[in-house]
Amino acid sequence: MQKNVLNRYFRISLSLQGKGFPSLEKLATDCEVSVRTIKRSIQVMRDEFDAPIEYSPQYKGYHLLHDWSFQLPNLSEKELIQLLMVTSTVKQFHGTPLENTFQSIEKKLNAIFSDYITVPSEHYHTILSLNPNPVQIKKDIHNSFSILMKSITNQKTVWIHYYTMSNHSESEREVDPYHLYNKDGIWYFCGYCHTRQEVRDFALDRILKIKMLCKSFKKLEDFNPQDYCKSSLHIRKGGSCQCTIWFDPIAAPYIRERKWHCSQTIQEQTDKSIILELNANQQEIKEWVLQHSYHAKVLQPLSLQKEIQSEITKMMNLYKKNHPGT
Fold first, then answer.
1. What's the maximum distance between 2 C-alpha atoms anywhere in the chain?
2. What is the pTM assigned to this prediction?
3. CB 149 within 8 A of CB 96
4. Which of 37-41, 91-95, 136-140, 260-264 has the lowest mean pLDDT?
5. Chain-wide mean pLDDT for the chain?
6. Angle between helices 98-112 and 77-88 (to 10 degrees)
7. 10-48 burial string, b = 16+ CB within 10 Å, else e?
8. At CA 84, angle to CA 81 and CA 89, rounded to 5?
9. Has domain 5-64 been given CATH number 1.10.10.10?
10. How far is CA 86 from CA 114, 119, 165, 173, 180, in A?
11. Domain 142-229 carries which CATH code?
């Protein structure tokens, strides 16, 4: 019966820790595998685990150059499966330097722990998915991601040539990058913009050019990436306002069961409808309310209510027109 990979590595390391110089044939016999398998195992131990294994022509066997041992991790099968499922969800890292890294980790874990796991690796995706169908960006962001990772780590300012979608304009600016994050499959970084003199968000696929400068920076003392990311309803920060939204009894259970924003409060109504209050970006609130169709209505501020009425009017007029293909 074939020994599992981990045990083989462990037994090889034990043999090499002794006073002798075991040959390939001796190790193969001890591990009950072929000489070719032992050769491959020693190479993997050198390359992947930095094992200081050396061949001695004088003694015609292998030994360790210095103290080293192969430690078997104390992980249950459930823990191993969960670890492998996480590393197998690499879609959100597509186009970044981390994509190959996660794929490599997944392959190594599968190879090392293969005899510990009864669930085939190809079945992981049927058990768990993290954002299984993210938006696929068309632009290669590998270079931008690499530069930003290095700049954030070393706290160096970056210069970017950036395209702003809202007004279809291009600009050049210097930014102190604070944090990289993924939202619905799109990679962003937030940082202190020297032009706007505030923390802003930038989509990596809209960076036309980027380079790391020699300038060092210090993060704003009160900046916390987790608090910053959860301060928006979706992605936009700033331009926030206190809003009051009514949801009818049909939409209320869906709204009630989740925390949509860190500032939200909910008031229950006698007819099982609810009134939600939150402080977030007004444009994002407008888009979110429109998604709920006639099941939601903005009560305050009146300016936002009028904006939504205007959007509804435009939609009605749009559907009255004939368009090519209709």
1. 91
2. 0.59
3. no
4. 91-95
5. 83
6. 150
7. bbbbebbeeeebbbbeebbebbebeeebbeebbebbeee
8. 125
9. yes
10. 16, 15, 33, 36, 19
11. 2.30.30.520
pLDDT of residue 25: 92
CA-to-CA distance for 148 and 157, rounded, in angstroms?
A: 9
Residue from 178, 213, 215 nearest 199 by CA: 178
Tokens linked to 217:
């920076």
Task: Give the domain ranges of the chain.
Answer: 5-64, 77-127, 142-229, 240-320
The two beta strands, 61-64 and 156-164, are unpaired
- Alpha-carbon dihedral of residues 153, 156, 161, 163, nearest 10 degrees? 50
Q: Per-residue pLDDT tens for 205-231? A: 999 999 999 999 998 888 888 777 776
Residues 6+ apart with CB under 8 A from 318: none
Tokens representing residue 170 in the block:
């291009």
Encoded tokens for 260: 């949509």
d(CA 189, CA 200): 8
3-state secondary structure of 171: strand
Using pLDDT thresholds of 50, 70 and 90, give the confidence band for residue 1: very low
Q: How far apart are CA 5 and CA 116, in angstroms?
A: 9
The CATH number for 240-320, chosen from 3.10.50, 3.30.70, 3.60.21, 3.40.50, is 3.30.70
- The lowest-confidence range among 38-52, 123-137, 266-280 is 123-137
How many whole angstroms separate alpha carbon 58 and alpha carbon 80?
42
pLDDT at residue 116, rounded to an integer:
55
